[in-house]
Amino acid sequence: MNSARDPRIAIVGAGLGGLTCARVLQQHGRSVTVFEREASADSRPQGGSLDMHPDTGQAALGTAGLLDRFHALARPEGDEWRVLDFSTAALLARQGPAAGGGRPEIDRGQLRGLLLDSLTEGTVRWESTVTSVTPLADGTCRLLFGDGTAEDFDLVVGADGAWSRVRPALSPAVPDYTGVTFVETGFDHCDTRHPDLARLVGNGSMLAKGAGRTLVAQRNSNGHIRAYIALRAPKDWHEAAGIDLGDQQAVRTHLLSLFDDWDESLHYLLRNSDHGFIHRPLFVLPAPHTWEHVPGVTLLGDAAHLMPPVGLGANLAMLDGADLAHALVTESSVDEAVRAYESIMLPRSIRAATGSAQGLDNLVPATAS
Fold first, then answer.
1. Membrane spanning segments where (predicted)?
2. What is the three-state SS of 63-128?
3. What is the pLDDT of residues 313-322, one digit of tens each?
4. From the annotation, which residues make up the binding site?
């Protein structure tokens, strides 16, 4: 990109996609600032384990020059799925790790830490809440922050997730409830404290499916297992049941009642968790979700194409970030770079959204299979 000065680039959101974009830009000597509303990198838990796909997440890490560091942290043995019969817990199917590494697992927090550590100190401005984004007539874009200050940039990248503050500058779309809710919990030191569960889950992930109900358990690092109780239910299912989500025992009792015809060994996931239950209703953006190009602003990751969490989201966000950064360092102008990026990303996201919707229907079937 030939210009009298480096373009001023702002990335809103220090998630995996935004950090990948920042890393690739810095590799090419470009300046970039990441604005993040959280107070620090460790201000909240970062979620479960992710499988990095060769043609998306791993490709992005390769572009970012971080693939070797990723493999040093990843767990290739975690790329295993065990499917159990819900009524007997008998093993119905097992898919082991693919030859050559396949899709190795890594904790989201470890992956985010890897990306953060790769950036120039001070790249991320913590405790920076963006309240609005305004494209300007000269092709630049203005960020307004929660403290009342404003800054102008040649490009603002919305990498700020499902409830993006950047998206309204491009699209009126808002996420809609899928009809599926995850209730998350967890187990610590599983090989010693929960050995039966550890054997049931294996090295990777385990699932058991019934009509409108699924249990998923997933190995994380350091002996932790994260479990998800997936339900086809109204978003306010707990209110209809008279359940206060803050009353953990009431939640536990209600969930057990929903799975009373399941095998007792699977009830362990509901009875004996070391952590409380976290309510996570699943939302998606309309598919297809597209927009007319607007100079000075674009989106990546969940801000652009929020999908069900069936293994695509983090991988696509990172590939988005790498592709956008690559365009910004190879095209002749910021606007041409964004157009080139959107011409690749938008069709790709439409295909992925269709597949992920089908994946959610398979994960939590409405009727017994």
1. none
2. HCCCHHHHHHHCEHHHCCEEEECCCCCCEEEEECCCHHHCCCEEEHHHHHHHHHHCCCCCCEECCC
3. 999 999 999 9
4. 44, 51, 108, 302
